[in-house]
Amino acid sequence: MADATDTTDTPSGRDYRDTVFLPETPFPMRGGLPQKEPVILEQWGDLYGTLRAERQAQKAPLYVLHDGPPYANGDIHIGHALNKTLKDFVVRSRFLLGYDVDYVPGWDCHGLPIEWKIEEQFRAKGRRKDEVSKDEFRAACREYAGKYIDLQRDQFKRLGITGDFANRYATMDFTSEAAIVAEFHKFKNSGQLYRGSKPVMWSPVERTALADAEIEYHDHVSPTIWVKFPVTGVSDDHPDDLLAFRTSTPSIVIWTTTPWTIPANRAISYGPEIAYGLYEVTAMEEGLEFAPWAKPGDRLIVADKLAEEVFKAAKIAAWTRVYDINPSGLECAHPLAAQDSGYGFSVPLLAGDHVTDDAGTGFVHTAPGHGADDFEVWKAHGHHEVPDTVDPDGAYYPTVPLFAGLKVLETEGKKTGKFGPANGAVMDKLIEAGNLLARGRLEHSYPHSWRSKAPVIFRNTPQWFIRMDEPLKSGDTLREMALTAIDDTAFHPAAGKNRIRSMVEGRPDWLVSRQRAWGTPLAMFIDKQTGQPLHDPEVDARIVKAVAEHGADIWFTAPNSDFLGAHDPARYEKVEDILDVWFDAGSTHAFVLDPRLPEHGYTGDRPAHWPADLYLEGSDQHRGWFQSSLLEGCGTRGRAPFKAVLTHGFTLDEKGEKQSKSKGNTTDPLTVIKESGADILRLWVSLVDYSEDQRIGKQILQTTVDAYRKLRNTVRYLLGALADFDEAERLTDYDQFPPLEKFILHRLWELDAHVRQAYVEYRFQDVVRPVLEFCSNDLSALYFDIRKDSLYCDRPDALRRRAARTVMDAVFMRLTAWLAPLTPFTMEEAWTTRFPDAGTNCARVIPETPAEWENAAEAKRWKDVQWVLLTVNEALEASRREKTIGSTLDAEVAILTDQSVLDLFESEQEAADVFRSSSAKLILWDADDAKALDVWDSLPAISFEPIAKAMSDQARLMVKVLPITDRPKCARSWRRVPDVGSDPAYPDLSARDADAVRYWDQTRS
After folding, report:
1. Given this model, what pLDDT does residue 947 score?
2. Residues 865, 860: Cα–Cα separation, whole Å
3. Which pLDDT band, with edges at 50, 70 and 90, does 7 fall under?
4. How do beta strands 208-210 and 193-203 pair?
5. Which member of 291, 369, 379, 428 has the lowest number of beta carbons within 10 Å of its beta carbon?
């Protein structure tokens, strides 16, 4: 049938428009999502509670998604939107697959970002942090976090996130803090916890130690120096003239990018397998703009492989290699010894496996208080005293000769994070001492705090650690248990397993103490006599009980005697460090899942199980939440608290660049929701490959809107076509369906299996893209177009029309289910438009798809039909352009082809229906049938050949479009068929249309 507005060549007489069964639906073409979605949210009410109640009544299996907590600070950003939407896809799809789903949204509340905000608030009131009591400060932090929990919760709900928000968790809740303390006590009491003094990554800006998970690497320009350490002592194994008076005192040359650590130097490390030599300078470069610090006669000891590079830096033009040097047994003076007696100690040479001759000088300046390798080699050679050189602010202690009070990094003001005066002061003193050989600058990757973005330093401090390599009761170490747990975990994508495995294999002991105020304390007492933690179950129980009742603040305000019971408070020191926030987050399974385990006595309506089925976060959490949860679970329960881990990439702008407010290239999810609707944002999430970094911006979102519009129009057409469809009209005998309907049912069968498996495997892109292609290619471009004439013009009880509407009902029932997790607002609107009293679409499970719908033969047939259609459509379009026909219904399509193609069509009328023409002529291409070829040649039209690869190598096809000029047009369907006028009661209608109008007239008389 032509468009209903077409009035070309309309026979005079009755107006039949009222008799055409055009689609009718109140479902509008325009989404209006920003206005409709809040209304739908209101109608849903406690949707999560409703869904859990229904599934539990159905005895559904339980699925647990444990929420990785976002930080309670600021509005949600696009990363939040991606993360929470993916989680919602998991939750809603598992409900759709028939599960009872446990998902409790949570928030991470402790830590530096909030602490900084509160410090700023107090500074604005003229109060420094040290003028505010810890109790008042923590109360302000708690209030701030609570404000943003409420704000983000409402924003997540507006995005359509479904979860147990009424019972949300927060790491600052009293019961959460108590559980975190109890988990910490498990490590304390199992012997996994110890206090050690070693170099750790320290943020002077934040005044706290940082763990590996809190570090990110950025390009950074550092000063580089080559420093001479004069040799003052040799063993008998060395040449007699090494320290001869007639020659210059030889010096070992070191290279470093941290001049500020020279005051902390206590040794020089060398590589036992490296070849070293004693070199004498014979000439310097000439024509320099400055006087170099080296001079002829200087004797320098360096690795042979690096000698030329060192001399180039020092502007040395010529040199002589004197002889081999074995560094073992040498002793040096500190390069600043002549400047201050505080540096008048000997500097030994230590063999170390960490030394290479890949860069530098082949020697490593060793400051045991400021480097992990330095510390280990110092201890390995029997040294125990580690000097404290730099204070928590990154300034030299008052006891440091020459440099007391100078800062390594600026910690306040506009220069925060920039180098302080320490580097320059050290270099100046080395020049004065005559021991600076050369200097330069180096851009390299350097560790920064992921919170402050400022560089960090290695600093020796007493901290609390959890051992990675101490055998536990099971006989395995924490590292071994964690690696086993990784192997037992399913990773999506699979590459995540190797990534986290390599991190765990090489990570140091877990640093869990922080020197800040806002967090969960290491709530324990230390015996002043032994330096060991107090192990007393009654004391631990009193601590946990008090924290559960009053929050962690009670630890800082209550007297020690309240916890210690019969123990003498004078003998014990209270630890007031706070726990690493990753320990908080890693413990969430203990207070979110454990209390709701039926095996622990839980009988409520929100049961969980342990371990969780899935943890889902960004790929950066391999070193963050995933890893801390892994270590916490293995350290307290012997296994990971998850069965599977899913990671997603980061969201970039349209050019693939990192989003930044300063660049102005951010996409605000709240703005997208306000302007276009949450379903647009959700559809974007479903369309991207979340396992990689994704892109978003105005153009990409416009493409998403276009995809949404096509999807919405498909649903709208179905709703209109299914108006008043009821069970009496439904066809139930599969054999009664025409071939085209059998093909669409096969596609439903095929897609159903695909969608189910894709949801099981969290492949959301593999749900939405095939479904969108089905809507566009199989439905809109093929099925709807072919069956439009039947839907509009067949009488309602016609078998073909009933079959079409039955199939469209099956399509509607599955589309609204398949897409419910991805675009829940639109599918809810569609569902309630058709079934206003049937409850929420979100509570449905995917309808079962009959096995008899599988029909490979029809699938093959319609693939071949569509090959024919490509050429037919091209021919019809060319005829329209040449104005030889007005519409396709003004044409007869003739095809000359092989028998295999003719067999695709049951009749010429079916071919005409498929071609959307009024008639079709099918002619066999038979070289032996001259008559048939003569008929083809006599047809007055241009022949069109296939524009796509044939369905088989042998298939031949020619197409002609013949204008129909000798048949009147049916006044109702616009078809030009021979039987127009055959019914005297309706002389301007075809027989089919006359029968339909007679039915229409009779039902309304």
Report:
1. 67
2. 9
3. very low
4. antiparallel
5. 291
* Pairing, β 276-284 against β 510-511: unpaired
Residue 358 confidence class, pLDDT cut points 50, 70, 90 = confident
* Cβ atoms 822, 759 nearer than 8 A: no
pLDDT band at 2 (very low <50, low <70, confident <90, very high): very low
User: Angle, nearest 10°, between helix axes 625-637 and 174-189?
Assistant: 60
Tokens, residue 858: 């029809």
Phi and psi based region of residue 98 (left: phi greater than 0; alpha: psi -120 to 50; beta: remaining)? left
| Secondary structure (3-state) at 164 | coil
Q: What angle do CA 554, 555, 561 make, to 5 degrees?
A: 100
Cα–Cα distances (Å) from 311 to 280, 307, 335, 589, in that order, read 11, 6, 19, 58
Residue showing tokens 């942090």: 129
Q: Could you tell me if 611 and 589 are in contact, meaning their C-beta atoms sit under 8 angstroms apart?
A: yes
For residue 34, whether the previous peptide bond is cis, meaning omega lies within 30 degrees of 0, is no
Q: Tokens representing 369?
A: 């208080």
> What is the amino acid identity at position 719?
L
Helix or strand run (H / E) with residue 268: strand 267-270
Q: How many CA atoms are closer than 13 Å to the CA of 273, on its beta-carbon side?
A: 6
Q: Which helix (H) or strand (E) holds 994?
A: helix 991-1003
Q: Identify each DSSP E strand in 450-597 by its residue range.
A: 457-466, 490-492, 510-511, 513-514, 525-527, 572-574, 578-579
- 115 has a pLDDT exceeding 70: yes
For residue 6, is pLDDT > 60? no
Crossing angle, helix 678-687 and helix 765-773, to 10 degrees?
Answer: 100
* Torsion sign across C-alpha atoms 188, 191, 195, 197: negative
On whether the pTM is more than 0.90, the answer is: no
